[in-house]
């Protein structure tokens, strides 16, 4: 029996583990932390006001059919283990001029937005079967008869305009323009540098909705770990691996930062040297706040926009410093009906500002910048209003998650190469070594990371066939 060792029980590693276990491989999964999840974990803290809980990484998910597909592959129902509820509005956007826009059904049905989505639908129709569902080496397998009608959308991928320049063709309203520019940050990039092909991101959110699991995002890796164990996978927690080459297995899968893996564990690799030539996706400055009051003007997900958006990204990607006037993201899961994530009369704030991927990063006193900026929106917090405050920055992401320079997604998607050709899923010099996670193909975010695990499991089956497993017919 082929033995497989997976390093890292993040969502990508768990996705690969469950599928490979179902295929009949002998799988060992090693995780340095006491719980699964990688960045998708939670933090709880007791205070004099009561107990608070925060999602530490992703705060919603889309494309739930990808998660359903994983459970179906293992002959189970996702709904029996991870109940999802819609997030509506998916986000509330705020500006200092008093404008507030909710991202709900009426938002997506505006004429200008509808026209934008019609354009982006062609990007998705062409890229989903060729890019999202296959490794780059097999993209040509998507060129069946059903793809002929979508070939007409190919020139859209050759459009070398930035997302910000492209968006100006669709939106005259400065508020809508800023909303659609903001989708570039979903993969840690600047809208003024990333390519217009990423118009696919708002299309995905509009088409598949925003969803939240009962009990928090951490329930997803928690249940995926149990699913993997039911397929015979052996999970080893509190077990850190420092050398991929030392693993006693013919097939190795690294579910971690691909850049870090190549620099630390494969230092002589030609691929590793090339990885340092590209812009890094942004990091984040994060505060977990236990707030002793409630704000009716805020929703579960909120964006409070900078008045000088381009300058903000210049600070992050050019000057490599924390933005002087940041856009602020606030997630408050205690807004969910029936939530116990904060005591009565309180809220659990996950506050995030995009930050440069550089370590060490001087964040001393930056919380005052954030609080001062919040006051411009009429949101005022005094010391007595805060039951607890925990802060995190690029240095913490590098230390806790082995994220190179604290980057949340590896490469920024600022060129055609980094947008369409992420660090590879398989090492060229070591064919038995594979990679999953948000820093490799097809990209970051829960759905794409789940797909990375699926694609790698299919590559393993193709490269190292298991004679006792017959793949299910395609649906």
TrEMBL record:
- Which terms does the record give in the GO molecular function aspect? oxidoreductase activity
Instruction: Domain (Amine oxidase): give its ranges.
Output: 11-249
**One Pfam family, short name:** Amino_oxidase
**One Gene Ontology term from the biological process aspect of the record:** carotenoid biosynthetic process
Where would one find coiled-coil regions in this protein? none
Keywords from the named record: Carotenoid biosynthesis, Oxidoreductase
Q: Which SUPFAM superfamilies match?
A: FAD/NAD(P)-binding domain
**Superkingdom as given in the UniProt entry:** Bacteria
Pathway(s) this gene product operates in, as recorded in its UniProt entry: Carotenoid biosynthesis
Read off the InterPro entries from this record: Amino_oxidase, Carotenoid/retinoid_OxRdtase, FAD/NAD-bd_sf
**Family the entry assigns:** Belongs to the carotenoid/retinoid oxidoreductase family.
Q: What is this protein called?
A: Phytoene desaturase
Q: Which organism is it from?
A: Prosthecochloris aestuarii (strain DSM 271 / SK 413)
């Amino acid at each position: 029996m082929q033995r497989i060792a997976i390093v890292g029980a993040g969502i990508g590693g768990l996705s690969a583990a469950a599928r490979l276990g179902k295929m009949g491989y002998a799988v060992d999964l090693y995780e340095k932390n006491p719980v699964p999840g990688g960045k998708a974990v939670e933090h709880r803290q007791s205070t004099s006001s009561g107990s608070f809980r925060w999602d530490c990484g992703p705060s919603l998910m889309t494309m739930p059919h990808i998660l359903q597909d994983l459970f179906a592959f293992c002959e189970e129902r996702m709904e029996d283990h991870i109940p999802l509820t819609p997030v509506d509005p998916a986000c509330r956007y705020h500006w200092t001029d008093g404008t507030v826009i909710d991202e709900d059904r009426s938002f997506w049905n505006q004429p200008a937005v509808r026209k934008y989505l019609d354009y982006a639908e062609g990007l998705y129709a062409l890229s989903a079967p060729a890019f999202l569902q296959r490794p780059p080496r097999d993209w040509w397998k998507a060129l069946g008869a059903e793809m002929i009608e979508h070939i007409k959308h190919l020139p859209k991928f050759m459009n070398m305009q930035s997302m910000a320049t492209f968006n100006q063709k669709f939106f005259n309203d400065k508020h809508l323009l800023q909303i659609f520019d903001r989708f570039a940050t979903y993969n840690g990039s600047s809208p003024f540098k990333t390519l217009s092909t990423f118009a696919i991101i708002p299309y995905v959110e509009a088409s598949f909705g925003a969803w939240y699991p009962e009990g928090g995002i951490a329930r997803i890796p928690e249940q995926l770990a149990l699913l993997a164990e039911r397929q015979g996978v052996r999970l080893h927690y509190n077990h850190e691996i420092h050398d991929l080459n030392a693993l006693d297995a013919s097939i190795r899968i690294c579910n971690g930062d691909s850049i870090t893996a190549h620099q630390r564990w494969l230092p002589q690799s030609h691929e590793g040297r090339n990885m340092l030539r590209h812009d890094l996706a942004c990091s984040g400055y994060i505060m977990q706040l236990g707030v002793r009051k409630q704000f009716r003007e805020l929703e579960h997900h909120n964006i409070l926009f900078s008045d000088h958006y381009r300058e903000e990204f210049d600070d992050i990607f050019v000057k490599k410093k924390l933005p002087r006037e940041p856009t602020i993201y606030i997630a408050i899961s205690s807004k969910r009906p029936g939530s116990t994530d904060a005591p009565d009369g309180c809220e659990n704030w996950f506050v995030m500002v995009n930050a440069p991927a550089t370590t060490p990063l001087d964040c001393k006193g930056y919380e005052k910048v954030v609080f001062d900026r919040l006051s411009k929106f009429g949101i005022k917090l005094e010391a007595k209003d805060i039951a607890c405050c925990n802060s995190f920055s690029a240095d913490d992401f590098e230390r806790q998650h082995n994220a190179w320079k604290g980057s949340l997604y590896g490469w920024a998607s600022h060129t055609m190469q980094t947008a369409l050709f992420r660090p590879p899923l398989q090492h060229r010099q070591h064919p038995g070594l594979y990679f999953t996670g948000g820093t490799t193909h097809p990209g970051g975010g829960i759905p794409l990371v789940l797909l990375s695990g699926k694609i790698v499991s299919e590559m393993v089956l193709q490269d190292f066939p298991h004679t006792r497993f017959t793949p299910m017919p395609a649906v």
